[in-house]
Design brief:
This protein is an alpha+beta fold. Helix content is 52%, strand content 14%. The strands form two sheets. A three-stranded antiparallel beta sheet has the order 3-4-5, with no helix packed on it. A two-stranded antiparallel sheet has the order 1-2. The radius of gyration is 34 Å and the shape is elongated.
């Protein structure tokens, strides 16, 4: 029984040592691994790299560095982070999806109004007196 306990303790110590080693490697790494539920596989971005779509430029007036993302139509003084880049892409996708839903809804509304107008015209035609209907073309 005592031998089993010692073996179990040694296994736990080995697992703890491996876990500590992994944690230290991650802390000392100069790369960030970022993954959200909407991006697969994980995106690896070095701390020196800018997120996708971002450019570094220098202000002609002040000489200060600023950052531009022309896809998003955005500029900022602070260096964008990888997480910010992913969040902005996610938000842009949400906006595009919402715009598409609005477009489809408007198209349905236009179609519904067209159908209602046709039905109204058909009803008016049925309710017109016979002498007012277009079928009698009397020429004088």
């Amino acid at each position: 029984m005592m031998a089993q306990q010692k073996a179990s303790d040694r296994q736990l110590q080995k697992k703890a040592a491996k876990s500590d080693e992994k944690r230290r490697k991650i802390e000392n790494s100069s790369e960030l691994v970022i993954q959200d539920t909407h991006s697969t596989p994980a995106e690896v971005v070095s701390e020196k790299e800018l997120p996708k779509g971002w450019e570094e430029r220098k202000s002609k007036k002040s000489g200060k560095v600023y950052y531009v993302n022309e896809n998003l139509g955005k500029t900022q003084w602070e260096r964008p982070t990888a997480a910010q880049g992913q969040a902005e892409r996610f938000l842009q996708k949400l906006r595009e999806d919402e715009n598409e839903r609005v477009k489809r809804r408007r198209e349905k509304e236009v179609e519904q109004r067209r159908i209602e107008e046709e039905q109204r015209e058909a009803e008016e035609e049925r309710n017109r007196p016979f002498w007012a209907k277009k079928q009698f073309n009397i020429k004088t």
